[in-house]
Amino acid sequence: MSDRTAHDRPTRNLLRRVLLLALGMLAGCASPAKQDKVTGQMFIVTRGSENIRLGLVEVSAIRLDSLQAHIAGSARAWNEGPEVRQQKRIAEAKSLLAVAQKELRGAPARAQANEIAYIRGDIPTSKYMGGQAGYTATVRMRVANLQKLLESYRAFAGRGPSAGYLFRDLPQPLATAKTDADGRFELMVPAGVPVAILAAATRETPGAVEKYHWMVRLNNSARQGTALLLSNDNLITQPAPQSLTIAWEGMDRPAAKPE
Q1: What's the total number of domains in the chain?
Q2: Spatial contact of 215 and 196, defined as CB atoms under 8 Å apart
Q3: How far apart are CA 43 and CA 50, in angstroms?
Q4: Residues 172, 66: Cα–Cα separation, whole Å
Q5: What is the pLDDT of residues 177-186, one digit of tens each?
Q6: Quick one: how far is CA 254 from the chain centroid?
Q7: What pTM, to 2 d.p., does this model score?
Q8: CA atoms within 13 A on the CB side of 226
């Protein structure tokens, strides 16, 4: 090893230490990521035009892309689980209805034969149908009940997950806050990052417990100081411009139904 190489090694080591120290100081002095302040208020207007402010409700800010992936996953899970079971119920109800309708078409003749057999003493009282009118009325009522059942099953089929279902296992929020007694809240969210504001609240009424869910796309005006209002107008079940329902742009998602 030459004397020059041995002499240069301490110098290089010193320069390396100085460079690492400088990089560490720069990293420590780096300015934090810019954030936007979001303020808002949560309230519900009743049918009697009374404003109900919702306090102590958690409000979350979640990345929009993460929420979109969550909703897509929820839709898949729904279609592979509850929706499959609902379609099975529909198929079973249709089968029972077809049998009942066939029985209704043959009810007069069957009831007449049953009555003749009863009069002749060929069948016991326990197997007597009650005459043509009574038997036909019984079968007709069964058909009507099955039709109602089928309609109720169809009403909820294909509508996608409920609002509460969409709020299960949500992505990690960027920020959270709780509303105060006046329903007001304040959040700090990363600037330039598409964000959605989420909240779920309940309210007890004399007759029931009302449930409210919001998934609202954060717009630029809310980032620039305009208060974000979470109200009847942008509940998850309403087609508001920022409400993340079936109407949101670029997405083909099932609509949520109220609870």
Answers
A1: 2
A2: yes
A3: 10
A4: 9
A5: 999 999 999 9
A6: 9
A7: 0.61
A8: 7
